[in-house]
Amino acid sequence: MSSSLQGKNVVLCITGGIAAYKAADLTSRLRKLGAQVYIIMTESATHFITPLTLEVLSEHRVVTDMFDRTFTWEVEHISLAKRADVFVIAPATANIIGKAAHGIADDMVSTTLMATKAPMVIAPAMNTNMYENPIVQQNIALLKARGVSFVEPASGRLACGDTGKGKLADPADIAHAIEAAATPHDLEGLSVLVTAGPTREAMDPVRFISNHSTGKMGYAIAQRAQMRGAKVTLVSGPVALDAPANVSVISITSAMEMHDAVMEQLPLQDWVIKAAAVGDYRPETQADDKLKKKADEMSVALVKNPDILKEIGMQKRDDQTVCGFSMETRDLIENSRAKLEGKNCDMLVANNLKTAGAGFAHDTNVATLLYRDGSSEPLSLMQKDSLADIVLDRMLALHRKKG
After folding, report:
1. Angle between helices 255-265 and 308-315 in degrees, nearest 10
2. Strand (E) positions, 168-296?
3. Hey, what CATH class is 191-401 in?
4. In the chain, helix, strand, coil percent, each to 5?
5. Annotation-wise, does 339 bind a ligand?
6. What is the structure's pLDDT at 73?
7. Phosphopantothenate--cysteine ligase: where is this region (predicted)?
8. Residue ranges of the domains in the chain?
9. What is the phi/psi pair of residue 131, to 5°?
């Protein structure tokens, strides 16, 4: 999987609290995403998890002391501050949030924090009453106003026995926020509608007609667009995927439901990327009860579903940009070119199901991008999130041409 953190330097600061042990999981996740992780711990944090554990996971020396006598000509807090591509505090206590808000620099974490110009992500963890204290909330609001990103704590049973908001967010969510902070926000201000997954057309309460789409391509596009700063709405058929973070998801089942959701959203969007595999036909009638086996053969009358992409193409404004997808098993370019032109798309992503590594269920894809001017752009095998970024890059170029 490609990541915005590949080759980036993350300075992870760990402050004192029971949630400090989760920093091990977060460090592992960041390493898997390709980041170099440099860790600073407050003295109190070392009581909850050892520096040695984090040194093994990060493969770098953990810094704990302002006056460490380990020989180096570098001024440690300045060196780490300059090295950081993203600066993270997780878990963050009320104490460090207060220091950050008011410029107090009296330990290794707070002095490095004062010296960095890197994007900052803070994940608070504390007792509910502490988190809800007006002073803490004012400090958080002050830091947010200065551009600091916060990963909201979760609600649940806390270590002290209380129940409420204050648990450290899931390390996966924190890692996502860090990745987003490392991603250029070149789609800031754009509203993007993405469709993904299959549709299901019911025959009876038990059976339905569908396809093999897993939604992976559309979900990758939605996630990458969100990370790049867009306001993303995802209309999704039934899939076994977690909802992308910070994306508005509209869940549907049938093609008619997808049609209605998309057409309602269309006037609000700058871009539409239609990656869903929508059923072309549905049963003319749906039985109220399960159909029983009565004969060797059974016929089901089918009626055509609305052509959502064609309707989008007919209704789109001049300032809207539309990307369609096609899945073929032969005559890929010819059939896809006809779809691009017939449905008034600005670009189209063409896939051949018979190509190794392409199509449904894979984490990879092989695609050819087609454009209105008659040009095409064949792409080699790559991860779907890498293809997602290329699609978004090309959409951005088309959008800018429209002025």
Report:
1. 20
2. 191-196, 201-202, 208-209, 231-236, 248-251, 271-274, 281-283
3. alpha beta
4. 35, 25, 40
5. yes
6. 40
7. 192-403
8. 9-181, 191-401
9. -65, -40
346 in a labelled binding site: no
Whether a cis peptide bond, with omega within 30° of 0, leads into 205 is no
Which residue bears the tokens 């008659």? 374
User: Considering the chain, what is the average pLDDT of its residues?
Assistant: 93
CA distance 270 to 171: 32
Q: Which residues, 6 or more positions from 72, have their beta carbon under 8 angstroms from its beta carbon?
A: none
Cα gap 189→185, rounded to integer Å: 9
Are 333 and 370 in contact by the 8 Å Cβ rule? The answer is yes
CB 339 within 8 A of CB 365: no
Tokens of 6: 């590949």
- Cβ-contact 197, 214 below 8 angstroms: yes
Query: Which of 13, 160, 323, 345 does the annotation list as catalytic?
Result: 160
How many CA atoms lie within 13 Å of 12's alpha carbon, on the beta-carbon side?
35
What does the DSSP 8-state code read for residue 15?
-
Q: Quick one: average pLDDT of 147-174?
A: 89
Does the 9-181 domain belong in CATH 3.40.50.1950? yes
- Catalytic (active site) residue 160: yes
Provide CB contacts within 8 A for 265, sequence distance 6+.
193, 233, 235, 250
pLDDT per position as a tens digit, 238-282: 999 999 989 999 999 999 999 999 999 999 999 999 999 999 999
* Residue positions counted in the chain: 403
Instruction: Output the six-digit token pair for 386.
Output: 């890498």
Looking at residue 1, its amino acid is M
Note whether 94 and 136 are within 8 A (CB).
yes
pLDDT band at 65 (very low <50, low <70, confident <90, very high): confident
Q: Is 82 annotated as ligand-binding?
A: no
pLDDT of 71 over the 90 cut: no
The yes-or-no answer to whether 9-181 and 191-401 have a common fold is: yes
Q: Give, in degrees to the nearest 5, the angle at Cα 353 between 206 and 330.
A: 115
